[in-house]
Amino acid sequence: MPHEERLSKAVWDVLAEQGLERLTIRAVAAAAGCTTGLVMHRFPNRRALLRHARQLLHETTKARVETLEAAAASPRAALRAILHQGLALDPQTVAESTVWLGFLAAAVADEELTDLHRVNSRAWRTRVGRLVETCGPPQDPATVTVALIAMVEGAAAFAAADPSAYPPAVQEAMLDSALAAFGLSEDPGGRR
Amino acid sequence: MPHEERLSKAVWDVLAEQGLERLTIRAVAAAAGCTTGLVMHRFPNRRALLRHARQLLHETTKARVETLEAAAASPRAALRAILHQGLALDPQTVAESTVWLGFLAAAVADEELTDLHRVNSRAWRTRVGRLVETCGPPQDPATVTVALIAMVEGAAAFAAADPSAYPPAVQEAMLDSALAAFGLSEDPGGRR
DNA sequence: CTGGTACCGTAACAGTTGTTACGAGACGGA
DNA sequence: TCCGTCTCGTAACAACTGTTACGGTACCAG
């Protein structure tokens, strides 16, 4: 694993475990098992490090989503699968949601992080939108798309901040109920 | 306006305009038009200041929600009204959503902020849940409640980070479409 | 006018921050 | 073996952090 990737994953660890306020160069270096010298040799400054970590997070989830989409038996199965992976269902995805929230909060003060968020977020919206269109819901596909991605991201945020109040079963029931309500269930007929 | 309240609103301003990373005592004092002396005289430390600001945000939105709920003509109108106020539709609510995200990100490193978030968030969920039950949706009320609050919070987050991609019309269409899909539209019949 | 008290601005403290500079050491070709 | 280069740990820098201590000043009872 190249050092840039290792450092970016260290950024995720610190962001997930210690939060944005303690996301310092030294904390990242400690999490990566090196010193600040290596970090500053690989990245010109702290913001560049954050941007690389943000982009790597996007590419990781993108690869996972593409795998799920390719393996799905039908468009509706693919839609459910990629929305399902966006929920916070286990320690891994809980951490991812926390990290995503951290980057979003950090973007307030960093215009380049904001741009990165918008590009990635719009790509995600477009991907889900294409799938929703293929599934052919009764309502406007664009509106349904916004409803679905907002719901998943919101549920992941709530679950990351209060896991016991949003256990996996609750999140999954929410997703399936919404898909059924929008006429996008896997079993034909629209009701579940 | 008492000084505690003025300082807490200054915390919001800094959080909305400069982000969590620049949320320092000095920045808050500057936003409030005073010095660090006054801040530290009113609050024992920085975390107590953040907690007060977090709680005041909750109480402000709670008061607004109660007003809307009392003024609504029907349970369904009340449900739509209080979900609608949670969206990020104008600079005021966009800032509120940004501040809410900032507190959520800050809660990762602050257990007391986490507790505050959970208490407030569960109260919000309970309030919406009661209203959903009263409206009597076809599906399980608890599941519909989670879907609605997650969707609104997620939409507010997306809109705060990328306002032009989530204009008010899009957010409102999303909300109305979801209420219709769950059989909770204001006009009887369930479809819109 | 006098004394005291509560408020809060000023200035300092030690610790931490991002960033820079320097040097040791590993590695590889000649 | 020797020398250059590339990597990265060490240590330092100024700026900034939360917090504390001190001093002045406004206010008010007597």
Structure description:
Two copies of one chain form a homodimer. By secondary structure, chain A is mainly alpha-helical. The first copy, chain A, has helices at 3-17, 25-32, 36-42, 46-71, 75-84, 91-106, 111-135, 141-161, 168-181. The interface between A and B is large, with 54 and 54 residues. The structure holds a DNA duplex (30 and 30 nucleotides).
Unreliable segments of chain A (pLDDT under 50, ≥5 consecutive)? none
Q: What characterizes the major β-sheet of chain A?
A: none
- E-strand count of chain A: 0
How large, in whole angstroms, is the Cα Rg of chain A?
18 Å
Quick check: average pLDDT of chain A?
A: 94
Give me the strand/helix succession of chain A.
HHHHHHHHH
SSE blueprint:
The structure is a homodimer of 192-residue chains.
Chain A: H1 3-17, H2 25-32, H3 36-42, H4 46-71, H5 75-84, H6 91-106, H7 111-135, H8 141-161, H9 168-181
Helix pairs in contact in A: 1-2, 1-4, 1-6, 2-3, 4-5, 4-7, 5-7, 6-8, 7-8, 8-9
Chain A binds a DNA duplex (30 and 30 nucleotides) through residues 24-26, 34-38, 40-41, 45-46.
